[in-house]
């Protein structure tokens, strides 16, 4: 299943509640995956992963501020 996400930008959420995002899933093995972002390369055991997400569309940012009333 993870092999279909190779070379895509993903976010990985870990079982301890932490996560990494905006990196590329470079390799998927039997026990580990290799994830690389701008700053580091991580070898992550599959048992430490809760889920992996892929952003398929950029979300609209909510407007901040007040509109003048007429």
Topology:
Elements: E1 9-14, E2 19-28, E3 32-36, E4 41-45, E5 49-53
Antiparallel strand pairs: 1-2, 1-5, 2-3, 3-4
Folded structure, characterized:
With 70 residues, this protein is an all-beta fold. The chain has a single domain, classed as SH3 type barrels (Roll), CATH 2.30.30.100. It is 0% helix and 44% strand. It contains no helices and 5 strands. It has strands spanning 9-14, 19-28, 32-36, 41-45, 49-53. A hairpin with a 4-residue loop joins β3 and β4 (41-45). The mean pLDDT is 89.
Parts with pLDDT < 50 across at least 5 consecutive residues: none
Specify the CATH class: Mainly Beta
CATH architecture verdict: Roll
**Morphology call:** elongated
Radius of gyration: 17 Å
Output the structural class: mainly beta
Please give the count of helices.
0
Distance between the ends: 55 Å
Task: Provide key terms for this protein.
0% helix; 70 residues; SH3 type barrels; 5-stranded antiparallel sheet; mainly beta
Give me a quick take on this structure.
This protein is an all-beta fold and about 70 residues long. It is built from no helices and five strands.
């Amino acid at each position: 299943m993870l092999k279909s996400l190779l070379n895509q930008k993903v976010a990985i959420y870990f079982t301890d509640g932490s996560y990494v995002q905006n990196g590329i899933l470079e390799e998927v093995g039997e026990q580990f995956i290799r994830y690389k972002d701008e700053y580091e390369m991580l070898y992550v055991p599959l048992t430490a992963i809760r889920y992996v997400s892929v952003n398929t569309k950029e979300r609209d940012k909510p407007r901040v501020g007040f509109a003048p009333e007429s």
